[in-house]
């Protein structure tokens, strides 16, 4: 059974709320991403959606006309339960992590995807700063440690130069797409509340965090609102890609 960080295990316990309030991904990011992976218009291509969560990106893949065969890998049981209940076409939901995917046979997939997004506006950066004050020193997307397995695969020294066994091509391809969504202030708080740092809070600490969020939304001069009182939430979807080196000895389950 995969080991899950206790912060993530408890912070994402309310997987239904996570699924309701977390953002999806814009079409402008999805299409070029799939193009770079050589699976756009590839009928019945096999895709592993790693760390699929409740299926935000899995849903997009399952709706496409290519009729993909998808294995959604997710270690959190609550997340998997929400994803399984969606009954997505062509999707098999399994337990696993990046280093432990027993349901995925070696060289089965045409592409492996992991999806993430980051904020881009001034007031959202202030919201981000609130989150970072609760840093639990666990590796996160912003720490860029996800790059390490790719960048260190060809790092040679006198002891390893003969045994370097790279599996993926370098450098990594990278791009990003900016987007805007209009949300009520309450919806923004609910989205913010799904972050594991915040979801694990309670009592006075949670109320203090909530007050800081609403203070930013109500008082920051760069918060843009429409006639409905909704706030323009600007984000940036970042995506990267690489390809397997032909003939590389990919291992079963990872």
Instruction: Give average pLDDT, whole number.
Output: 82
H and E string: HHHEHEHEEEHHEHHHE
Sheet having the most strands: 4 strands, parallel
Helix/sheet category: alpha/beta
Shape, per Cα inertia axes? globular
Number of helices: 10
> Which strand order does the major sheet show?
3-2-1-4
Helix content: 25-40%
Q: How many β-strand stretches?
A: 7
Strand content: 15-25%
Rg, alpha carbons: 20 Å
Low-confidence stretches: 158-163, 249-254
Terminal CA distance reads 15 Å
Outline the fold blueprint.
Elements: H1 6-11, H2 15-21, H3 27-36, E1 46-50, H4 56-63, E2 69-73, H5 77-85, E3 91-94, E4 111-113, E5 117-119, H6 122-132, H7 148-151, E6 173-183, H8 185-193, H9 196-199, H10 203-219, E7 231-241
Parallel strand pairs: 1-2, 1-4, 2-3
Antiparallel strand pairs: 5-7, 6-7
Helix pairs in contact: 2-8, 6-10
Distinctive features:
about 250 residues, alpha/beta, four-stranded parallel sheet, three-stranded antiparallel sheet, 10 helices, about 35% helix, globular
Quick synopsis:
With 254 residues, the chain is an alpha/beta fold. It has helices at residues 6-11, 15-21, 27-36, 56-63, 77-85, 122-132, 148-151, 185-193, 196-199, 203-219; strands at 46-50, 69-73, 91-94, 111-113, 117-119, 173-183, 231-241.
Give your account of this protein's structure:
It is a single chain. The protein is an alpha/beta fold and 254 residues long. The strands form two sheets. The protein has a four-stranded parallel sheet, with helices on one face. A three-stranded antiparallel sheet has the order 5-7-6. Helix 2 packs across helix 8 and helix 6 runs antiparallel to helix 10. The relative contact order is 0.19. The C terminus is likely disordered.
């Amino acid at each position: 059974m995969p080991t899950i960080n206790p912060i993530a295990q408890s912070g994402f316990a309310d997987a239904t709320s996570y699924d309701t309030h977390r953002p999806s991904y814009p079409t402008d990011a999805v299409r070029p991403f799939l193009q770079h992976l050589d699976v756009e218009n590839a009928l019945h291509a096999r895709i592993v959606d790693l760390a699929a969560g409740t299926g935000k990106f899995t849903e997009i893949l399952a709706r496409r006309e290519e009729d993909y065969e998808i294995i959604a890998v997710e270690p959190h049981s609550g997340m998997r339960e929400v994803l399984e209940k969606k009954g997505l076409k062509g999707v098999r939901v399994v337990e696993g992590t990046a280093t432990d995917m027993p349901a995925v046979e070696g060289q089965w997939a045409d592409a492996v995807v992991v999806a993430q997004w980051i904020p881009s506006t001034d007031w959202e950066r202030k919201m981000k700063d609130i989150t970072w004050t609760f840093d639990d020193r666990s590796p996160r997307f912003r720490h860029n440690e996800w790059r390490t397995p790719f960048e260190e695969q060809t790092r040679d020294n006198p002891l390893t130069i003969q045994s370097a066994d790279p599996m993926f091509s370098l450098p990594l391809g990278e791009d990003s797409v900016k987007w805007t969504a209009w949300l009520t202030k309450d919806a923004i708080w609910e989205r913010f509340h799904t972050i594991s740092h915040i979801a694990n809070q309670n009592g006075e600490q949670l109320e203090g965090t909530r007050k800081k969020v609403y203070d930013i939304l109500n008082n920051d001069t760069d918060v843009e609102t429409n006639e409905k009182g909704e706030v323009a939430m600007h984000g940036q979807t970042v995506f990267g890609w690489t390809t397997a080196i032909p003939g590389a000895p990919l291992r079963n389950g990872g």
